[in-house]
Amino acid sequence: MLACSKKIWKLLETIIYILLYASTILIVIIAIIITALLLKDSVKFFLNIAIYKFLFGTIWNIQDLTNPLFGTIPLVFGSLLVAIIAITIATPISVASAIYIAYFCKKKTRNNLITFFEIVGGLPSVVFGYFAISTIGPLLSNIASTLNINSQYENTLSAGINIGIMIMPTITLMSLTAIMEIQNTLFNASIALGATKVETIRRISLPMSYKKIANAVLLSFARAIGETTIVIMAAGNIPEITYNVFQPIATITSQMSLLLRSDHDFNSINTAAAYALGILLLTITFTINYTAILISRKKKLNT
Fold first, then answer.
1. Cα separation of 104 and 191, whole Å?
2. What does the DSSP 8-state code read for residue 249?
3. What's this model's pTM, rounded to 2 decimal places?
4. Taking the alpha carbons of 17, 22, 27, 32 in that order, is the dihedral positive or negative?
5. CA distance 217 to 36
6. Whose CA, among 40, 107, 190, 285, lies 20 to 30 Å from 132?
7. Would you say 118 and 173 are in contact if contact means Cβ atoms under 8 Å apart?
8. pLDDT score of 4
């Protein structure tokens, strides 16, 4: 009876192992298939448009059906500008929140705040997009008009601020996890030696957790670049290079959405351009994510 029970448990363990292994392989296969399909469907585009014109062209104009221009510099510029605004706003606030939750909150308050951030982090991006067009956009436009700055309700700064708000919970929770992993004995020893909490955070907590915090920031930066709904609703989708953050701008994702919505047959050069933009976006986000991996694996230098 005992031998039979052991055989059953051994069989169950084998089945569980196979399921876990298959799940892992499935994820890898799906990623490979998506990349392969993007490459396959973008071939039509690169057979008609030179890759150097695509990567280094400074004009994106798909409205001219006789001579469309597919220069992606304005789109890459717009994506990076919106993401930089978002990460610049989100990072200091999120890291400060993580420090407060880790070291200055009571346990019950900490648990409630973590639950709150988890809920906010799960909100759909359309909610933040609505907040952008109904509140942030008009507010920024009115401020700009008061300062005699040319502005519109749909603008770069509005999109960046709302994406920053969207990624704050993610950076906060990942930074909190990194900070909380530090051994309490080190923190308590520093306090026992006469250091204040702020000194201990500055000299021990942040130096020991900066790699994982940087990892959180980079992953959120990649998410900001890939955001679609907010930039469609709030940024204006005008593919021009402008340094006036109160003016509309277009991103890679907003133009991908426009291209796919404008072609009902999915068989035109515009659709092929959308797939080419998908490859470009995949390359950018892969580079950012790989950089985050390298930072997290980098050995801490001896000081």
1. 14
2. B
3. 0.86
4. positive
5. 29
6. 285
7. yes
8. 67
